[in-house]
Amino acid sequence: MNKDKIGEKLIELRGSQKREDVAESIGISISALQMYENGQRIPRDCIKIELAKYYQTTVQDIFFN
């Protein structure tokens, strides 16, 4: 898993949505989402699933392609 590529994908998926709205919907802190998007951290598996559900895609597409 390339943290930078994952971060780019998450930013692309978020588009014009506010980071605060996405984080609140998923149940994580804004700073956690920011760290995922900046390539500083990789989310736990349960968060990966929630992100994929929120963005209506697959965990595979976000984190492994």
From TrEMBL:
Residues 10-62 form the HTH cro/C1-type domain. This is XRE family transcriptional regulator. One of its GO terms (molecular function) is DNA binding. Pfam families: HTH_3. It comes from the Bacteria.
